[in-house]
Amino acid sequence: MKASAQGFTGRHMLLTISAFFAVVIAVNITMAVYASSSWSGLVVENTYVASQEFNGKAAAMKTMAASGIEGALSVNGREIRYNIHDGKGAPAIIDDVTLNFKRPVGDHEDFRLELRKTGEGQFEADHEIAGGDWIIEAVSRRNDAVVMHEAKRVDTAEFGQ
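User: That's the sequence. What structure does it adopt?
Assistant: C-alpha cells below.
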C-alpha cells in the first residue's frame, strides 16, 4: 500500500496568496467606508483661493505678533474671561472680542461667542463648554480692524472642568 504524501502544492500556494489579498482588500474597503462616513475632509472651500491669500495672511500674522499684544483665556465653569494686554503689560485698547469654539474634527458642536467688555482689556461671557478638545480662535477688533487674531488648541481639562 502506497501512502499519498502531496505536501505543499501549487493549489495550496494559490489559496494562501488569494486569502492574503482578500484580507488586505477587505481591510482597505472597511477603512475607506469608515473614513468617508466620519469626516468630509473639507478644510477650505477653494484651495486655489486659499493658496493665493496665504502670503497676505502670513504677513498680517507677523505684524500682529510684532505688536506684542497678547490675550489670556480663562474658563471657570460657565464663566469665560479673556484679558488682552500690550507688550508692556498694560491693558490693550480693544472694542470687541469674538471667540470661535471649534472641534478639531467635525463642526456639529462649533459655536461663536461675542464677549462683553467689563473693563479696559477685559472681556467675559457666560456659556457652558462641553468637555474635550477645542480649537479656540480669538479675534480682537478696534474700530472694525483686527488688532489681534490667535488660535489655540485646548482640552477643557486644562481649565479644571
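The chain has a mean pLDDT of 86.
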